[in-house]
Amino acid sequence: MSSTRRGVLRGAAALGGTALGGVTLVRPARAAPTKLTITIGSYLITYLPVLLAGPLGYFKDAGLDVTVQNIQGGGGKAMQALLGGSSDIVAGYFDHTVEVRAQNQDVVSFVLLSRYPGMVLAVRADLADTVNSAKDLVGHRIGIVGLGASGDFFIRYYAKRSGIDPSSLRLVGVGSGNTAVASIENKLVDAIVTFDPAATLMQSRGLTHTLVDCRTKAGTEAAFGGPYAGATLYSKGGTLAAQPDTMRSVAAAMKKALHFIAISTPEQIVSALRPEDVLGDRSAFTTMIKESVDMFSPDGAFDLADLQTPLTVLQAVVPSVAGVKVDLSKTYTNNFVR
């Protein structure tokens, strides 16, 4: 081989390309991953697909560099982060998109994570003999994730359906996860509206007695009077329109995570999570996954029939939504999951 020919090949190699017949083919540089922030308002098991997509590599495979931030303030605070521009996407409850749509905010849910809302109303075990109904809760301190969160909507609606003025309830923000458990352990509250993993952790330790369980279809319909879509991914309508490929990549990663949940054993799911997401109780967490698997959407798609009840609930207990005509077709889209 001539020295000239060798020089061409060396030059091509230096450029990351290949020399064929005297023509240098340069391989295109791999595009940098798209950076995104997904905000969650609190640590709830209904956000499990988001928690799995990172460790399983689904975000990376989709060309995404995702930061998941937990602001520990409930869904209302997470929505504020989105509207304020400090977050690109929120993993939050569908009812929040209805709430802000009533205020003419263009926020759209584009992936359904959980078919049921998953909240649990429980009373401290030492009060189980005297607190057995909504009327018994009057005068007691009731823990919720935070004011304006979906658990807040639930307990107000539950009270109203039971003939109790929601304004008479003593609601206390206690957060989620270990902080929620601590609020019961330390008797800071008498009852609590919480979600897994906290709900199962408290029950497994004999701390609570369950009054209402919305982790199942039957429990959800009994509590709300109909189906109630739970956790979703939502973003500003303008963001979805401006970045359709990126949002489609996010949706693809979520669909992979939902499929993983559907085909995996609870042990495999727990093993895939980061250690800090198991909250130090692997056995209870595995049990909780086993009992919660049916909550998750099989494909991330919405059914309009499941969306009417959240609107009914908010119109009953949220003044800014009461009396407002909300076009539900503008609160969600299936364009990114199908």
Can you walk through the features of this model?
This protein is 38% helix and 18% strand. The chain has 338 residues and is α/β, with parallel strands linked by helices. The chain has two domains: 34-117 and 228-330, Periplasmic binding protein-like II (D-Maltodextrin-Binding Protein, domain 2); 120-224, Periplasmic binding protein-like II (D-Maltodextrin-Binding Protein, domain 2), CATH 3.40.190. The strands form three sheets. The protein has a five-stranded mixed sheet, sandwiched between helices. A hairpin with a 2-residue loop joins strand 1 and strand 2. Helix 6 packs across helix 14 and helix 12 packs across helix 13 (282-292). It is globular, with a radius of gyration of 24 Å. The model is unreliable at 1-21 (pLDDT under 50).
CATH superfamily of the largest domain: Periplasmic binding protein-like II
Biggest beta sheet attributes: 5 strands, mixed
Helix and strand content put the structural class at: alpha/beta
Task: Provide mean pLDDT, rounded.
Answer: 90
**End-to-end distance:** 55 Å
Subunit organisation of the chains: single chain
- The coarse overall form would be globular
CATH topology of the largest domain: D-Maltodextrin-Binding Protein, domain 2
Alpha carbon gyration radius: 24 Å
Number of domains: 2
The share of residues in extended strands comes to: 15-25%
Q: Biggest sheet: strands side by side, in what order?
A: 4-3-5-12-6
Number of strands: 12
Helix/strand order, N-terminal first: HEEEHHEHEHEEEHEHEHEHEHHHHH
In the CATH scheme, the class of the largest domain would be Alpha Beta
Give the % helix.
25-40%
